[in-house]
Design a protein that fits this description.
- The complex is a heterodimer.
- Chain A is an alpha+beta fold.
- In chain A, a hairpin with an 8-residue loop joins strand 10 (197-205) and strand 11 (214-223).
- Chain A starts with a helix and ends with a helix.
- By secondary structure, chain B is of the alpha+beta class.
- In chain B, 20% of the residues lie in helices and 30% in strands.
- Chain B has helices at 6-24, 35-38, 55-59, 74-81, 85-90, 100-103, 159-163; strands at residues 45-49, 109-114, 119-124, 129-134, 139-140, 148-154, 175-181, 186-189, 193-195, 200-209, 215-224, 233-242.
- In chain B, the strands form 2 sheets. Chain B has a 9-stranded mixed β-barrel. A two-stranded antiparallel ribbon of chain B has the order 8-9.
- In chain B, strand 5 (139-140) and strand 6 form a beta hairpin.
- The chains are: A alpha+beta, B alpha+beta.
- At the A-B interface, helix 1, strand 6, strand 9, strand 10 and strand 11 of A face helix 1, helix 3, strand 10, strand 11 and strand 12 of B.
Chain lengths: 610, 256
């Protein structure tokens, strides 16, 4: 050792000694000392062994503190749903991934210069779930950011535990027999090591599907050799040929044929294993013998009463600011003006999809100018609705279309190319003119059939008409190279589809439109990532959220249709609460689009009583 | 070959001297702090089990021979297959599923208290059992359902950390570790899944405080029993803190 190094070592030691002698805390206390989670781990399968291995029994939800909506969702679930192409590779959400069979691996990511811990990585073989637990104090993303199977996790060491908080989870399973966990769930976890044993405790809070937090504990054991089995191959394929695109296997309320199997096998009353917070507490053991078959039947249908309202947070910013979120390549989300706005920039003028409500249009223009010095050249409207066209006039005025100036049009029309060109399906123009919207904000570049296409800013951009979806003028916009689809109100994460029968909307067209989006999406890995889908309202999505929304629309259609075929009146359909398993996610009893309005639209469309 | 610098030894001597100075400060030697005073976590109070794992095994009586998940060996399977609840009752052995290695899996509540500076008492209302977790000496009675339990605070410290002068290497929280032996043979599950009198039960008790103000007690258990098990049997059982004794319901052991 060089003398200088020796002095340095002595210095460090003397500083330490000084601290001890003085009995004072270090000037800045070090962060709580962590522990090592790196290495190979294997889950001990001594608890819930059958569920975690072969799979859970059908309709066994015992001990889960679920609410009625979760139970009804699960009872409606038909396991054949996993034969749908879009569901075949669905991954597990983080808390369920931990419960899966297979190998796990942990490792640290440290700053090479400071050796500060940046992140702890945790990889589960099943569905190749790769979690990143950020340890560097970074904040969680905004509510309009994408959700993933693993969510976004931050951690800190507390006492002898690693405490992890996770948000932005996708909708997934509490248990893979249909018991749902919503995309509104958040997760708190504690990892503790006892020698070579790692004990994991998870606490799931889900305002949509849980009446109380769900607590689970899982054990892992450290292995000293590489498992050499780390992958979970999945590629979807055609499992049932000729099935209609609007066929989503499901059971009507009260008609799940397998609900009694578990009870018959283990001699447990149906009402007991259909779950609920009470079933997790010790007192419930004494109640098992008192439960009657009628109690089980009651739990299989929605309770009478007023529809529940959504418990989901509104992901749209409410601070009267425009928030920019990079989507991919040169495509951005501008969130904050009620309806989502998407911007594409490049060496040509900006291409904007939808213009928001117009309330924050000046701020939207300022945000666009920060990303592009070139004028706004094109505005594409996915709908005539005001939350997508409200900013048209000002956005148009803030731009121009050089592709028109200098052409024959310029010789014929003095204003050719003055202002951005607004494009949309013809019915958007027709309805905006009919409602006397300002002429400067009405699309002038329209198309009548199938699609409008253009190559702009080095990307192929296609507009597809989704005829008779929520209205008769809806379009989706696909940036092919960036692989971003702007869905407009055909798809939102905030409410039931606002099917406007008066303006040409239909149930059949809405389902077809959602399936049309799904024809164009490609997931990247295990059912997530890949094509980005921007809803008309809500957070940035991928294929998975569209699939769940499509499933919901089909299932509700099936239920209403079944009652219509039996001659039910609208009042009877409403009283049956056919949306009960989705109301805590999408329902509303006030506002511009209530559950009642949605059910009425579906009923009137399917019954022909418009 | 590297030469250890003389400065290193000098510093080490200074450290040792400093530690000595600290130890001697205050005059007469002080008795070491009691286990109660050293407790890195507080697990006292009432706790209620949240039964959502192995639910059907714990909430209802599973069928005879249903021991999925338990790594029984041949002798264990044979013993489980011979289970007879009526015989147990007739023999006054109704508490076989309420021994130390099984009672924490019973749906019920715990009441944990200090009975002195070095002994924790853990009572269960299920089966009205009492476990004595002794930090000094032996707690409990040999050959009883609850056996003899030795408790310690497990801080997972390295020898270097005990030296105490490397920032960041100090003790971090801790767990209650309990090792129980000399139990009367009993059941891991109510349907006669056995453990023998030679079984060794090792438990870690951890407390986690949640952002919403709730607290959880997680008991991580390992049962080593070469007589009936091919590998140790691992479970982790969780309880939620109660503010008071609500629901505390001492009741006798049951074989049904």
């Amino acid at each position: 050792m060089k003398p200088l190094h020796a002095v340095a070592v002595c210095g460090v030691l003397l500083v330490a000694v000084g601290i001890r002698i003085g009995g004072q805390a270090p000037p800045s206390a070090p962060p709580a000392t962590g522990f090592d989670m790196s290495g190979y781990w294997t889950a001990a399968m001594h608890e819930d062994a059958l569920e975690r291995g072969a799979g859970p029994e059908l309709a066994d939800y015992g001990g889960f503190p679920i609410n009625d909506a979760a139970r009804l969702f699960a009872l409606s679930y038909n396991a054949s749903r996993v034969t749908l192409r879009e569901h075949q590779c669905d991954g597990y959400v983080a808390p369920y991934s931990v419960r899966s069979i297979g190998n796990a691996r942990g490792w640290e990511e440290r700053d090479p210069h400071t050796q500060r811990l940046i992140a702890i990585h945790w990889y589960n073989q099943t569905f190749e779930g790769h979690r990143v637990i950020w340890m560097d104090g970074r904040p969680h993303p905004p509510a309009y950011a994408p959700h993933t199977w693993m969510g976004f996790s931050t951690g800190r060491f507390v006492g002898n535990a690693l405490e992890v908080q996770t948000t932005h989870l996708k909708q997934g399973w509490l248990r893979r027999n249909g018991l749902p966990e919503s995309d509104q769930a958040t997760l708190v976890e504690f990892f503790v090591r006892h020698g070579d044993r790692l004990v994991h405790t998870s606490v799931i809070t889900d305002p949509v599907y849980l009446a109380e937090p769900e607590v689970r504990t899982t054990d892992f054991f450290r292995q000293h050799t590489d498992h050499q089995s780390w992958l979970f191959a999945c590629d979807d394929g055609e499992q049932i040929l000729g099935r209609a695109a609007d066929n989503v296997p499901n059971y009507q309320f009260g008609a799940n044929p397998f609900v009694g199997e578990f009870g018959q096998k283990y001699r447990i009353p149906v009402a007991a294993y259909l779950g609920g917070p009470e079933t997790a507490y010790p007192e419930f053991a004494a109640r098992l013998s008192t439960l009657a078959p009628a109690d089980g039947a009651t739990k299989q249908r929605p309770a009478a009463g007023t529809p529940e309202t959504t418990r989901a947070i509104d992901p749209e910013p409410s601070d009267d600011e425009i928030h920019v979120w990079p989507l991919r390549d040169n495509v951005y989300l501008l969130a904050g003006d009620r309806g989502n706005v998407v911007l594409q920039v490049g060496d040509e003028g900006a291409f904007v999809v939808d213009s928001g409500s117009g309330r924050l249009v000046d701020k939207a223009i300022a945000a666009i100018r920060r990303l592009s010095q070139l004028p706004i050249q094109f505005i594409a409207n996915t709908s005539f609705r005001t939350e997508h066209t409200g900013g048209n006039v000002k956005l148009r005025a803030a731009g121009n279309d050089p592709s028109v100036r200098g052409t024959f049009f310029a010789l014929q029309f003095a204003d050719a190319g003055v202002g951005a060109t607004i494009m949309a399906q013809q019915n958007v123009q027709t309805r905006m003119v009919a409602t006397k919207r300002p002429a400067d904000g009405v699309p002038s570049d329209t198309f009548l059939e199938e699609r409008r296409r253009t190559f702009h800013n080095n990307d192929a951009i296609e507009m597809f008409w989704e005829r008779n979806a929520v209205t008769d003028g809806d379009s989706i916009v696909h940036f092919r190279r960036a692989d971003v689809i702007v869905a407009g109100d055909v798809f939102t994460t905030t409410q039931y589809p606002a099917i406007d029968l008066q303006n040409g909307g239909s149930v059949k067209g809405e389902i077809a439109a959602l399936n049309d989006i799904l024809k164009r999406t490609v997931y990247k890995h295990q059912g997530e990532g890949g094509t980005i889908v921007v809803p008309g309202h809500g957070y940035v999505c991928d294929e998975h959220e569209v699939v769940e929304y499509r499933d919901m629309m089909v299932i509700i259609r099936d239920r209403v249709e079944a009652m219509v075929k039996k001659g039910a009146t609208l009042a009877q359909v409403k009283a049956a609460r056919l949306t009960a398993d989705y109301d805590t996610r999408y329902g509303a009893t006030t506002g511009s689009w209530t559950t009642d309005m949605f059910v009425e639209a579906v009923y009137r469309d399917l019954s022909g009583r418009k | 070959m590297y030469r250890v610098p003389s400065g290193f030894f000098a510093a080490t001597i200074v450290v040792a001297a400093a530690v000595t100075i600290v130890a001697q400060r205050g005059g007469s030697p002080q008795p070491p702090p009691t286990p109660k005073a050293q407790a890195p976590i507080d697990i006292t109070g009432y706790w209620v089990s949240l039964v959502n794992e192995d639910w059907r095994y714990r909430m209802a009586m599973p069928p005879k021979g249903d021991f999925a998940g338990v790594p029984l060996n041949g002798a264990g399977r044979q013993a489980a297959g011979a289970w007879d609840a009526a015989k147990d009752e007739a023999a006054g052995e109704s508490c076989r599923a309420y021994g130390a290695a099984g009672v924490m899996r019973q749906p019920g509540r715990l009441h944990v208290t200090w009975t002195g500076d070095d002994t924790l008492m853990l009572e269960t209302d299920a089966g009205t059992q009492t476990r004595t977790l002794a930090f000094r000496g032996a707690g409990g009675t040999s050959g009883s359902w609850q056996g003899i339990s030795k408790a310690s605070w497990d801080r997972d410290e390295t020898p270097m950390a005990r030296g105490g002068f490397f920032p960041g290497a100090a003790a971090r929280g801790g767990s209650l570790k309990v090792v129980t032996t000399n139990m009367k043979s009993g059941y891991l599950r109510g349907n006669g899944v056995p453990y023998s009198a030679d079984a060794v039960l090792t438990e870690y008790f951890d407390r986690f405080d949640l952002p919403n103000g709730d607290a959880l007690l997680v008991v991580s258990t390992e049962v080593d029993d070469p007589m009936y098990l091919t590998t140790p049997f691992w479970t982790s059982t969780h309880f939620k803190k109660q503010r008071d004794a609500a629901g505390w319901n001492p009741r006798p052991c049951s074989t049904r």
